[in-house]
């Protein structure tokens, strides 16, 4: 409705302007023709009444006084030229005669002589207005050309333009009123039509598999809307049933996968533990003078394997039960330095250009993130000739960036898409939960973790956190 009103107003305004211009052109053309016709009649009358011989040479005598009378009666100014285009007489006052051409253009003369037409119309723009001039022959009583009449005419469109502006103003007022009415009608009609659809849209937008969804109840809905509401309500029932089944299935699958992983990881240290016990049992000799030393080595081996199983249990416990987040305002630079103090490797370097970078994070979890990334970097450079690990902290805009780079083995392309999967690992031992836990912590604080890696060159892990804004 609104578009139709706007388009109609533009089209009518355009047609109105065009129509006014066409009417103005027709009016001026008709007026010029009438003045020309009346002027020629007056000239012919003067030629009939004159006592001078009617010839080109006598035109200045014939119209010496009558030219002013004719101009006054007809309310126009005109000029008379001889057949060669030279000015003979003008009805304009003497002080205005300087602006009159004393000789006609060759174009006018050639047209009148060669075209066979008795009239030439010249159209120009002068002083911002349209200007027309008629050039036509003056004939004697025997219809022989004796001179050329020039009738200049300036189109005065002041009145038409004023009328056009007034009309367009009134038209604009009408269409503004119509536009306001159309907007109000469109608003209420659309609200009436779409209120049921809006209710359905809101319910669909809030539909979520993780919680119970409300059904739609409408009073006196239309037939189509009623069918849509019934379909939505049926979908909600089916969705809830599917969500319950899916949740149960996911829980069962998760526990099965976790049980398999725990069993697999525990079996790894149990095998060497069993072989060690069997070997000790077979070789045990109480009378052996080095029995104390062998028992001590046996006990050390058992303790190492038991510690390995304890670490596995701790890792799975940490992944399954992450501690609650403690948002605290802390200096990231200081906390990262603290996390690196537990490592004794001299090839670990820390670089930052800032003394303080403030963010809202959990100190313990940030230390856990840095520790995991650095441990992974250390494990990636066991056979590198000149190992190097570089940890950096920097501010980029309103974000804090922490990067851990190593010159280790790198990550093969086929493993890159699985690097953050909870159970994925390329090590012979380990749970594969470290990077999954890191990613979980980072994303819980509105951050991101990315990496770039090249086989044989090394890997760079980059963490991005929101920076605490200074007040």
UniProtKB/TrEMBL annotation:
It is an enzyme of class 2 (transferase). SUPFAM superfamilies: ATPase domain of HSP90 chaperone/DNA topoisomerase II/histidine kinase, Homodimeric domain of signal transducing histidine kinase. GO terms for cellular component: membrane. Residues 261-469 form the Histidine kinase domain. CDD domains: HATPase, HisKA. It is found in: Membrane. Keywords: ATP-binding, Kinase, Membrane, Nucleotide-binding, Phosphoprotein, Transferase, Transmembrane, Transmembrane helix, Two-component regulatory system. GO terms for molecular function: ATP binding; phosphorelay sensor kinase activity. Gene3D superfamilies: 1.10.287.130, 6.10.340.10, Histidine kinase-like ATPase, C-terminal domain. The lineage of its organism: Bacteria, Pseudomonadati, Bacteroidota, Flavobacteriia, Flavobacteriales. It comes from the Bacteria. The chain crosses the membrane at residues 167-189. Its EC number is 2.7.13.3. It catalyses: ATP + protein L-histidine = ADP + protein N-phospho-L-histidine. This is histidine kinase.
């Amino acid at each position: 409705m609104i578009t139709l009103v706007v388009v109609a107003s533009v089209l009518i305004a355009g047609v109105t302007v065009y129509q006014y211009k066409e009417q103005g052109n027709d009016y001026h053309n008709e007026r010029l023709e009438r003045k020309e016709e009346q002027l020629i009649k007056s000239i012919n009358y003067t030629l009939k009444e004159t006592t001078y011989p009617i010839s080109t040479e006598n035109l200045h005598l014939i119209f010496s006084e009558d030219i002013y009378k004719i101009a006054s009666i007809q309310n126009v100014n005109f000029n008379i030229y001889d057949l060669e285009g030279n000015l003979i007489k003008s009805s304009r006052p003497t002080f205005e005669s300087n602006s009159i051409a004393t000789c006609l253009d060759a174009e006018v003369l050639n047209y009148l002589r060669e075209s066979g037409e008795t009239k030439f119309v010249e159209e120009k723009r002068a002083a911002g207005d349209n200007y027309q001039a008629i050039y036509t022959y003056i004939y004697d009583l025997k219809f022989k050309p004796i001179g050329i009449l020039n009738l200049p005419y300036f189109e005065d469109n002041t009145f038409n333009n004023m009328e056009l502006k007034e009309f367009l103003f009134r038209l604009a007022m009408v269409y503004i009123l119509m536009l306001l009415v159309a907007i109000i009608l469109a608003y209420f009609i659309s609200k009436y039509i779409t209120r049921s659809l809006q209710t359905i849209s809101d319910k669909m937008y809030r539909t979520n598999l993780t919680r119970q969804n409300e059904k739609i109840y409408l009073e006196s809905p239309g037939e189509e809307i009623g069918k849509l509401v019934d379909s939505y309500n049926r979908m909600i029932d089916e969705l809830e049933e599917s969500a319950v089944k899916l949740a149960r299935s996911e829980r069962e699958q998760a526990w099965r996968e976790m049980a398999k992983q725990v069993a697999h990881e525990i079996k790894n240290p149990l095998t060497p533990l069993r072989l060690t016990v069997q070997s000790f049992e077979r070789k045990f000799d109480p009378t052996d003078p080095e029995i104390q030393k062998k028992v001590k080595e046996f006990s050390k081996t058992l303790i190492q394997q038991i510690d390995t199983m304890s670490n596995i249990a701790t890792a799975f416990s940490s992944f399954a039960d992450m501690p609650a987040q403690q948002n605290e305002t802390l200096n990231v630079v200081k906390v990262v330095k603290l996390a690196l103090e537990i490592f004794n490797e001299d090839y670990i370097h820390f670089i930052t250009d800032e003394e303080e970078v403030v963010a809202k994070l959990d100190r313990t979890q940030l230390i856990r993130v840095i520790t995991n990334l650095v441990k992974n970097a250390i494990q990636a450079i066991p056979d590198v000739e000149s190992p190097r690990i570089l940890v950096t902290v920097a501010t980029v805009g309103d974000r804090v960036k922490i990067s851990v780079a190593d010159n280790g083995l790198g990550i093969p392309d086929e493993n890159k898409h699985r690097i953050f999967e909870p159970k994925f690992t390329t090590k012979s031992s380990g749970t594969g939960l470290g990077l999954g836990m890191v990613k979980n912590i980072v994303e819980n604080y509105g951050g991101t973790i990315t990496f770039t890696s090249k086989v044989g060159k090394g890997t760079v892990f980059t963490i991005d956190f929101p920076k605490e804004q200074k007040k």
